[in-house]
Write a structure and sequence with these properties.
Layout: E1 4-6, E2 13-15, H1 19-66, H2 78-98, H3 101-109, H4 112-117, H5 123-151, H6 163-182, H7 189-205, H8 220-224, H9 227-240, H10 245-274
Antiparallel strand pairs: 1-2
């Protein structure tokens, strides 16, 4: 529902854009900026899955498939095992970068958020517009990754097309929470800690490269509570064609819960940081 205000000259009511229109204006800024730099990100978007699948899926995969470790994969080739996990993990990695330095830059260095708030945009519009841009980046990243998986012959089921929304959900489960964290930082030193003790361990030990059951039993619950594990399990089951309905819904709800909780916290931290 459009808001109304009065013009200072005449006192007559003038209509302000609706909430969705305000969000799209914030999104439009990030989209315009991306149009100038997309070529650089396109290279990494294509080269990263090619490198991962060629080196890990085909190179290391040949050794795994011929070794005793193949028994832990239930007859699935290592390429088909690792590819869906890498899709989900790449979504997490891309999101973690896009939710750290760009957010701090918009607050402290380039102050784009402050410029937006000098217009009719509210804090919630600024936050939602930037998060919507993250969804676009996730859509591009996961779509390209899935296309490369198809070229490598790494899928066994047409249900694999759902890996695109699964990758988006996995990445977005992290985005608002990291936005909230970034909004509390005074400098970027905390980001190194986040990547070193958060993102990298999850990338290595959330089921991307080997079944979580191979971890020590006391450590397995730590993997189960990560959004990445749920994204990896869901993407892998869809690619292999053995996804269960109830289990899949459980994974989705867990990812949605992380995204919803992170959004609430991000709105609070953004308001504290940007509203004087």
């Amino acid at each position: 529902m459009a808001q109304t205000t009065s013009t200072p000259q005449t006192g007559a009511p003038s209509s302000l854009p609706s909430a969705p229109a305000l969000v799209l204006r914030a999104f439009g800024f990030w989209l315009t900026q991306y149009r100038r730099v997309w070529r650089g990100t396109a290279i990494s978007t294509i080269v990263e899955p090619l490198g991962f699948l060629a080196a890990m899926g085909l190179g290391l995969g040949l050794l795994v498939d011929q070794g005793p470790g193949a028994a832990n994969l239930d007859g699935v080739s290592y390429l088909k095992f690792i590819a869906p996990g890498l899709l989900a993990a790449s979504a997490m990695q891309m999101t973690s970068f896009e939710s750290t330095y760009p957010v701090m830059g918009a607050i402290k260095w380039n102050r784009q958020y402050h410029a937006m708030l000098a217009t009719p945009l509210r804090v919630v519009d600024v936050l939602a517009g930037h998060l919507l841009f993250i969804v676009l980046r996730l859509l591009i990243t996961t779509s390209v990754f899935l296309a490369i998986m198809v070229a490598f012959g790494a899928i066994s089921s047409p249900w694999a097309v759902l890996c695109i929304p699964v990758g988006i959900a996995t990445g977005f489960a992290y985005a608002p929470a990291i936005f909230a964290f970034s909004a509390t930082r005074e400098n970027d030193s905390g980001f190194a800690m986040l990547f070193r003790f958060g993102i990298v361990p999850m990338f290595l030990f959330s089921g991307t490269f080997f079944p979580v059951s191979r971890l020590p039993q006391w450590l397995q619950p730590a993997a189960w509570v990560t959004p990445l594990w749920h994204g990896v399990e869901l993407a892998r089951s869809l690619c292999l064609g053995d996804a269960g309905f109830v289990t899949s819904i459980g994974h989705v709800l867990y990812l949605v819960a992380w995204a919803a909780g992170g959004t609430i916290v991000a709105r609070w931290t953004f308001t504290r940081r940007l509203v004087v």
